[in-house]
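Researcher: Go.
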Amino acid sequence: MRQLLALALAGTLLAAAAADAKTLRWASQGDPQTADPHSQNEGLTNMFSEAVHDTLVMRDNSLKLVPGLAVSWQQTGPTTWRFVLRRGVTFHDGSPFTADDVMFSFERASHPNSQLRQYAIPMGKPRKVDDFTVEFVQERPNPIMLEHATTIYIMSKAWAEKNKVAAPLSFKDKEETFASRNANGTGAWMLASREPGVRTVLRRNPNWWGIKEGRAPGNVTEVVYTQVSADATRTAALLSGQVDFVLDPPPQDLRRLEENKETKVVRGQENRVVFFGFDQQRDELLYSSVKGKNPFKDVRVRQAVYQAIDIEALRTRTMRGSAVPTGGITPSILGSFPEIEQRRPFDPAAARKLLADAGYPNGFEVTLDCPNNRYVNDEEICIAVAAMLTRIGINTKVTALPRATYFPKLEKGDTSFYMLGWGGAVTDAQTTLDPVLRSRDNATGKGFFNYGRYSNAKLDQLIDAAAVEPNPDKRRELIRQALTEHNAQIHHVPLHRQMIPWGMRANVTVMHRADNVLNFGSVRID
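Model: Structure:
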């Protein structure tokens, strides 16, 4: 009798759980670039990697650092850190997680094909102490060690070697490997299927260690992601109930979504700055009417571009208020300074004079490369700015491409003038200084996202000094000097930090995060 009651109770609990289980159908304008967690450093790609793979140190929904696959850590010397690993964790294929997987993952993330190596290498060389202890030994101190530890996804060494993916794939060379569409992490979500550009399905990992700690309070057990490129189609899908959530509802449709009783909008500022960059390396631009010279090597031309941009028109008309204009280049104002945040004034007359002083009184023609499915209204911004530049004599043609084509183009240096956004959970300026503002260093991966290929010895010296300075006050001053030098040389033209509205059905509850990451485990559908 007691056994029958137990069986009946178990059946009731299972039925209740099944009734509460929900599928989250969601969409955005782009698609994850790859399932390989170390190949690409791109927002949506990282979101899926973070769902499937854990890191040593993780973040909660307020972006506070919390234990991940490491339960504790200690700095044992100026250049040595020791991490104690979580026991009893298994990968999605059932194999146990150990220090060998950490060693392998950091070595893999340091590979030249990895866009995460500028974070992995500064953490130092991993050394196995025992099966659940790893020590990192650095050549120089790393004042943001724990921030870097949140960025390296842990893979199964045995799985990677078995499937011949011991090295990250080369996305720019269109390499396809088993890791392009398959993954095996320890994370809260298991990759069930992936059809690039069409559909990606995740299913909740019932054995995830974080469930016991209450880190997955939502009721979603399956996530179905669909790329919907057209703005109008994404909005229509949300209004009709075909999807439950849209990561990037078009600004022009926000009022309509807010006024509809079946949908709602949750807003917040993202830690992401959008800016323009220039080819400052070549002696002759690839895509320009100017022959034998590169106008963008002249700071006066770069300043002319800056002062030709009517930032208020972009904010009010193009972005419909979903932007905070800035003169800074860091994703968050927390990594900046008041004087850095000040923009140069919009002044078309001054811009025309700068062009004339630089030797281009009649202007010139150039092509502006832009994504059309990565940032809020990215193509629309580029078209609006092209018109502004044309008015001062820089006749600008826009080439807009999907992110899957756009970013490999930039990586190959196949551009003269481009748009880029930079952001994430880290607010410290170093994670912008090293990868984006520094000159290229192929050995360390620093400067990888310096697609303009400029080299500024003074800026490099300040960035490198800040990267290893343990004194917080001295380091802050080095960062201020570095950002000041960058802005003085106008190596990039900042536009704004994005305001991120999320659109969803009225019965969906989410935790809006400043890194624009949808934490599937916190989503509840009633």
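Model: The chain has a mean pLDDT of 94.
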